[in-house]
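Lab notebook, design round three. We kept the backbone fixed and only want residue identities now. Task for the bench partner: fill in a sequence for the structure below.
Input structure tokens:
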């Protein structure tokens, strides 16, 4: 079985697929979900319905916790890509992370 399913035009990724595609630690994905929640995003809400997305479009991306869709327990792929882009593009101690 693939690590990706498409439901209503949205790609849902399993955790193992996301870890392989993004080359990140599984704990980092959990941190993105927590950071999104702490930023005030409403889990399960669309960007149009999430007050935080509307009021702070340039803030930390909306990342929902995993849910069961079409036989897999997964994350919205676009949300993970946005979080990875946001965290990988940032500077940390004057050093910019590059793809290694």
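Proposed sequence:
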């Amino acid at each position: 079985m693939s690590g990706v399913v498409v439901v209503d035009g949205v790609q849902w990724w399993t955790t193992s697929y996301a870890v392989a595609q993004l080359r990140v630690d599984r704990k980092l994905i959990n941190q993105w979900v927590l950071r999104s929640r702490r930023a005030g995003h409403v889990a399960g809400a669309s960007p149009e319905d999430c007050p935080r997305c509307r009021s702070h479009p340039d803030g930390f991306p909306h990342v929902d916790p995993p849910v069961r869709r079409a036989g897999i327990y997964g994350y919205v792929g676009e949300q993970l890509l946005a979080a990875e882009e946001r965290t990988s593009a940032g500077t940390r101690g004057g050093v910019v992370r590059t793809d290694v």
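Keep this in mind before ordering anything: The CA atoms of residues 14 and 72 lie 7 Å apart.
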